[in-house]
Predict the 3D structure of the following.
Amino acid sequence: MKIKTLLMALLCAMMLAACRGDKEAEKPKIAVVISTLNNPWFVVLAEAAAKNATDLGYEAKIFDSQNNPSTESDNFENLISSGFDAILFNPTDADGSIVNILKAKTAGIPVFCMDREVNSDDAATCQILSDNYSGCVDVGIEFVKALNEKGTYVEILGLVGDNNTWARSGGFHSVVDKFPGLKMVAQQTANFDRNKAMEVLETVMQANPDIDAVFCGNDAMALGAYQALLSAGKADKVKVFGFDGAGEVIEKIKEGKIVATGLQHPLVMAETAAKFADEFIKGRTVFPQRVPVEVNLINASNAAQF
Amino acid sequence: MNKNIKYGIGLVLLLFLAYNSVYFTDLDKMKSEDADAIDFNARATQLYAGIIAENTATDLNTLKAALSTLPDSAFANYGNRLGIGESAYFMVNVAGKVQSINDGEILLQTEAGESITVQTKFIFGNAIRDASGLVALTDYKTNADFNKLSEALNTIIREEKLPTAVQKISVGEVIKVEGALKLTKGQPLNTQLEILPVLIEK
């Protein structure tokens, strides 16, 4: 009888030890939900966020929302049921993504927005955002100076449902609209897509062949616009401006083919979001709702530094 | 049922579904949709009055001395940076003799012989709002609203206050300027500094 009890106790102790071992082996998990991995800029953001989370001791998984709010919603359903501990989130839509954040919030999972703002100041735990407005004010001033305050231009916008699109456009127009010699002949969306921007500008130039400049809401579209101008034999005449600080655009600024861009800092946003998630998991409860990240103007005078 | 009626009902159903599946919004309408009806002009007028009344500006020589000895403390004590970044905005006072007034730029020479640009044309962005240190990001629900405050403030300064002040000064006169200065950590202080003025006085 004694031996039997002893064996039972030993068995229980072994089971308990095994359970503890399992728990120790299971790392807490952080999800990185990205609007699209079809754009190199967001790939950098996603991979940097995942790497920072991994470096902090978490298991990190990247979810691609393919610029589709319903895919994003599915991603949230999956990660909530899979027991993730925090979400580093790049939303697809300033309004449409709020419901997903609230689902996570209800499930007790903190959400840290990166780069794209949602139109709510009490849904996400914190939003770490590029200061798109100020960045495009600087691009706008550069634009006015480069065109000597006169000429016609085209604006190519990003996604209509994304606040960054309007923050960039708003910053640019807060400057340019004060100079009556500058006339916008067309404003169209190209969804932050290079090929779409090329097609849009080709079409716009059929009705407006003598434009002087193009302002694009991101660098992918600036490269598409430059391609359209090159094909039309107008690359030397029409000045192109972008936003992001993509390596390819910085090279074109050095070559004098693109005038200026605003350099965003995806690595800083990813690092801050992962750090905040880690702090939340470790007990921090109060976070600033919005943390703007500075954007730097890159033009011919400083492109060599980047 | 008649085949044509069947196809007709099917077509109407298809059109009904297609119509209700998408919606179109005019880009201009999208841009002009404001979340709240905040009177930004009134708030900016109040902020401008606050900037002048509070007089929080630091003498430029004092700031430069602080920056050359303890730059981090100087940024923390005199500067304002919202969020993350290497630069900050400072509200400064400077006096100097007008060297030239040209295309929205006043060139000043201080007593110490430094050349300072006073920018009166490109008064845009958040430099003055942030240098003032009188408003916080949390005072507004969205970044867009917070930026509109800057736009209204800049408009008052650029279009109402500065034209009158600039008309009264001429080359060779000594003037006092209070305004916003942007500095980046590690930036050499012997470069041509540019001030976005809130006040120009003789």
Notes: The radius of gyration of chain B is 26 Å. The mean pLDDT of chain B is 89. Strands of chain B lie at 58-59, 79-80, 87-102, 105-109, 115-119, 174-184, 193-201. Chain B is about 45% helix and 25% strand.
